[in-house]
Write a structure and sequence with these properties.
Blueprint (H helix, E strand, L loop, with lengths): L1 H26 L10 E3 L10 E2 L2 E3 L21 H7 L12 E7 L5 H11 L12 E5 L12 H17 L4 E7 L4 H13 L4 E4 L1 E4 L17 E5 L8 E2 L7 E10 L6 E5 L6 E7 L11 E4 L2 E4 L6 E9 L2 E8 L1 H15 L10 H5 L5 E2 L29 E2 L6
Parallel strand pairs: 4-6, 4-7, 5-6, 7-9, 9-11, 11-15
Antiparallel strand pairs: 1-3, 2-8, 3-17, 8-10, 11-12, 13-14, 16-17, 18-19
Helix pairs in contact: 2-4, 3-4, 4-6
């Protein structure tokens, strides 16, 4: 019996060493040839257009050991993690609400990939057949979509999955603009409003100029909560986040902690923030160092190093399947979905951003981290109360929305 016990112990030890070796080998693999460890899904856009703000992790050292095993949660935060981190009533709220996602071009696998995500995380199916999911072009037409584009499809998969994670009871409306021109994206936002969206997420941005202000009216629909990503290039303003009728969403790094909350957050060093050069300061913003509109208002996880799990089967740069994403593209649909959980959009003034300023006690204040150099002020350095990178903070329930 002793010999058998010894043999079993040795075999167990060998197995553990082997598993560890496989994990270590897998973890040390580099990104695919020619790709950076973290890659922008969309390239920089020319003047008059926006680029999506998704960041995809390409290096396998970002995947945890569980990703090597079948029937185990994919790498990256899933619905349970995000709902826990932000203390959300996701299982009971959101019924009757519609969250719209506005992106450019067509993702031919959008509904199928959404189904994989939701079934993997044991969420109820959200399909065209059961009335939960609807995909239209920028004119509101089903079945006549823009050209396929694998880079924007990564963004679309990310956005749809984040709505599912935060508000699984919500309906989802995907509006695909013909191109990422600000004119087409603005038309898509107006279509989302016409089709009854309660909240609209815009995970894209472009250079702020006097020309882009011409499209601000498309993002001004009182009674509809409209969110926009603050950007992924550090300190500096962009549109549509700079429009004073949207909720500008900054980004954080989100990690587990031993605190009562169980999570901690710092400002993500890539998140956008700053002062608009053209958009007037809304009455509900009172910070001292921006004469015009200040970015951001609130924030959520965006650091790709603490990223979220997303399923996308439309291969781009050789990447497909379960992936890890970051960028303020994660944060914007999260916040739009929290608005839907609150089901308060119909009574909101200026699309809802002002409401958070009078209900900041229902937010987690993020007090550390920086996204660039701005003389050390609150505009690029997180601290108690309002700051540029994280705004008023991150959701603690849906009370601020």
């Amino acid at each position: 019996m002793k010999k058998i016990a010894v043999i079993l112990s040795v075999l167990t030890l060998i197995s553990l060493i082997a598993i560890g070796a496989v994990t270590q080998t897998f973890a040390k693999q580099a990104a695919p040839a020619g790709l950076p460890r973290i890659m922008h899904s969309c390239g920089q856009a020319p003047a008059g257009s926006a680029h999506c703000l998704a960041l995809v992790v390409t290096a396998s050292n970002q995947l945890n050991a569980n990703a090597l095993r079948k029937n185990v949660t994919p790498a990256g935060y899933g619905p349970t993690n995000l709902q826990s981190a932000y203390n959300l009533p996701s299982s009971t709220a959101g019924s009757g609400q519609t969250v719209a996602i506005v992106d450019a071009y067509n993702d031919p696998n959008a509904e199928k990939d959404l189904g994989v995500y939701r079934s993997t995380f044991h969420l109820a199916a959200c399909t065209t057949a059961n009335g939960c999911f609807k995909k239209v072009n920028q004119k509101g037409v089903q079945g006549s979509y823009p050209k396929n584009d694998p880079s924007w499809s990564q963004e679309i998969s990310l956005d749809l999955d984040m709505v599912s994670a935060i508000c699984p009871n919500c309906h989802i409306l995907l509006v695909e603009a013909t191109s990422p021109s600000f004119g087409n994206l603005a038309a898509a936002v107006n279509t989302a409003v016409k089709l009854g969206a309660n909240a609209i997420s815009n995970s894209y941005g472009g250079s702020e100029s006097s020309t882009e202000t011409n499209f601000a009216s498309a993002y001004n629909h009182p009674g509809v909560a409209i969110t926009a990503s603050a950007g992924d290039s550090g300190y500096g303003a962009q549109v549509p986040a700079a429009y004073n009728t949207v909720t500008a969403v900054g980004g954080t790094s989100l990690t587990h902690s031993s605190s009562t909350r169980g999570w901690s957050e710092t400002a993500w060093n890539g998140t956008g923030s700053g002062c608009s050069a053209y958009i007037s300061k809304p009455t509900w913003q009172t910070d001292p160092d921006c004469a015009k509109r200040t970015i951001a208002d609130v924030s959520a996880v965006a650091d790709p190093n603490t990223g979220v799990a997303v399923y996308d089967s439309y291969a781009y740069q050789g990447l497909k399947g379960w992936l890890v994403f970051g960028g303020t593209s994660v944060a914007s649909p999260i916040i739009a979905s929290v608005y839907a959980l609150a089901a308060n959009a119909a009574s909101l003034h200026l699309n809802g951003a002002s409401y958070a300023y009078s209900h900041s006690s229902s937010l987690y204040d993020v007090t550390s981290g920086s996204n660039g150099s701005c003389g050390g002020t609150y505009l690029c350095t997180a601290g108690p109360g309002y700051d540029g990178p994280t705004g008023l903070g991150t959701p603690n329930g849906s009370g601020a929305f």
